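User: Here's a chain of 134 residues. Predict its fold as tokens.
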Amino acid sequence: MTPDEVVESARRCVGARFRPQGRDPQTGLDCVGVAAVAMDKTMPPACYPQRGQDGRMFAMVAEAMGLWTIFPGEARAGDLLMVEPGPGQVHMVVITPTGFVHSDVRLRKVVETPGRPEWPVLAAWRGCSDQPGD
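Assistant: Prediction complete.
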């Protein structure tokens, strides 16, 4: 997939309801579900805690989906970020040209938020047809 295709796939998820460990836009998505749909990857297992994790599980999910680790400062539209919205909370977002798409637990749906995430960035991945560093 190209970065534009990743962004368009993520944007097609906007409006889907939030569902913990959700993997289908029709029935609901969590942040990992949004990432998998956007990257057109096989859905990773839905067997992780919603809170109290340090991100290793999300890193294993990204690796299992065949994504490349990149430096967070190099992230651009079509890339995936792992952020820390609060202590013991880890969240995945898909970068778009104008912001990021993610499953917002407070709004109970998938949304596109303008700008960069305000949370600390823990890791970044690229899964589109561009090689890391391109």
